[in-house]
Each structure stands twice: as structure tokens, then as C-alpha cells.
């Protein structure tokens, strides 16, 4: 409960719902943030709004004894401090907050009309597919290792959502369209690569990934084409 995230109350009040997306490490279905931290936050905010629904946790992930310990901590430690601080809430939703959990193994995805609910839903979505094997899950053209992308602060080096959204039109072009729009007559390559400012990363077309490499030490092929790394044609 280090961050109050009070701005979320305004979003919940305006849209009558919220989706929180996270991932988790190998062998787990949901991260602790979605099964413990977020439930505590929702229960605390509902109590501050005088709309107590009680602490709602996922039984398959949080045992009854742990739920009781969390509820006791909420009542004796968290809520007294929040009330003593006399926090000014930016919005006051009129319904309590309740969590709904979704993962790749969920069998159904109900989409109830928020106006018909007696609570405001907070959807906790985990995008990690549970993989028990140490070598990960082998797909048609990839190997999925659960948890490999956890904690982007350790690997993103400045690659942020804002950078994607500001360049999304170029990112989402087809490989052929991008190759055709960015010819490079000075080299054997038919494509173009752009440096992501503040990172050691480049994003480019299939053509820019052809050898010989000058700017790159490693290339990740995100296409189904097998010739992305073909050597450049000989100049002789």
C-alpha cells in the first residue's frame, strides 16, 4: 500500500470499471499484485467511501487463513492510517469495488452491463500462460517462457508505452509496406531501421535485418519468413 493511486477512483467513477493487466513468473497463474495488493486496495477504497464489500480474494490463490490475516491487517493497520490522514478523494464512486480475475486458462469471459451490477468491476487480467516445463511452451514459430518479460524496468532501458503509441502507425505496418516505403539504395538492404531513443534497440523491416550487419549484433525475426537473415547478394 505504498502508493495510494487515488487517480484511479476518477476512472472508476467515470467508466464504471477498470482493467489491470500484469504478468507473472513460471508456474503461477496470477501475480501477487493481482491476488493480494489490488484486493487490499479495493477493500480499502470501498471502506473509505463507506461502501464496504469486505476483502475479496481468489480462493484458488489465497487460502482462508491468509484472507483472514489480510482482512485483520486491513482493519487494524491500513484503514486507521488512511482515515487519520484525512485523505481528500478525487472522486466518490457510488458502488463498492469488486475484483474479477481473468487469465489465459479462463473458460469464459462474461461481459456484464455495469449498470446492472451492484458493484464496480475491477478486472485483474494476467497475460502469462502457465508453463510448468523448464524449457517453456513451444509454439509454431516461437518458444514461450513464462515470466521472461517480468519487471520491464530491468530490461526496457527507456522503451515505454508512450514511445510505442507515438510510433504505432509505423510499427503496425505490414513488412512489405514498410519495406516499400523505406528503400535504402545505398546498401544491399531493401528496408529501413529506426533507433529507439534512449535505448540500444532498433525496430526495422525485414530488409534491414539482412547481413552484413553494421549497426546490429543480434536480430530478432518477428515474421514467419525464413529468409529474413539471408546474406546480402554479392556485389561481384
From TrEMBL:
Molecular-function GO terms, alphabetical: tRNA adenosine(64)-2'-O-ribosylphosphate transferase activity
GO biological process: charged-tRNA amino acid modification
Rit1 N-terminal domain location: 3-176
InterPro entries cross-referenced by the UniProt entry: Rit1, Rit1_N
Domain of life: Eukaryota
Pfam families: Rit1_C (PF17184)
Record-level GO cellular component terms: cytoplasm
UniProt protein name: Rit1 N-terminal domain-containing protein
Lineage: Eukaryota, Fungi, Fungi incertae sedis, Blastocladiomycota, Blastocladiomycetes
Amino acid at each position: 500500500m505504498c502508493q495510494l493511486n487515488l487517480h484511479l477512483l476518477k476512472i472508476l467513477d467515470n467508466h464504471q470499471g477498470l482493467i489491470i493487466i500484469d504478468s507473472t513468473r513460471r508456474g503461477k497463474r496470477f501475480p501477487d499484485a493481482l491476488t493480494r495488493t489490488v484486493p487490499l486496495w479495493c477493500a480499502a477504497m470501498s471502506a473509505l467511501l463507506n461502501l464496504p464489500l469486505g476483502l475479496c480474494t481468489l480462493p484458488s490463490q489465497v487460502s482462508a487463513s491468509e484472507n483472514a490475516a489480510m482482512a485483520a491487517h486491513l482493519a487494524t493497520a491500513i484503514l486507521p492510517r488512511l482515515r487519520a490522514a484525512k485523505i481528500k478523494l478525487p472522486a466518490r464512486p457510488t458502488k463498492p469495488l469488486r475484483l474479477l480475475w481473468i487469465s489465459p486458462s479462463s473458460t469464459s469471459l462474461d461481459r456484464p452491463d455495469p449498470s446492472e451490477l451492484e458493484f464496480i468491476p475491477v478486472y485483474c487480467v494476467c497475460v502469462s500462460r502457465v508453463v510448468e516445463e523448464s524449457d517453456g511452451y513451444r509454439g509454431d514459430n516461437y518458444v514461450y517462457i513464462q515470466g521472461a518479460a517480468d519487471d520491464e524496468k530491468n530490461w526496457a532501458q527507456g522503451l515505454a508505452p508512450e514511445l510505442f503509441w507515438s510510433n504505432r502507425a509505423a510499427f503496425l505496418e505490414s513488412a512489405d509496406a514498410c519495406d516499400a516505403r523505406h528503400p535504402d539504395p545505398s546498401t544491399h538492404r531493401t528496408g529501413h531501421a529506426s533507433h529507439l531513443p534512449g535505448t540500444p534497440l532498433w525496430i526495422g523491416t525485414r530488409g534491414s535485418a539482412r547481413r552484413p550487419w553494421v549497426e546490429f549484433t543480434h536480430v530478432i525475426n518477428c515474421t514467419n519468413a525464413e529468409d529474413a537473415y539471408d546474406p546480402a547478394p554479392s556485389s561481384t
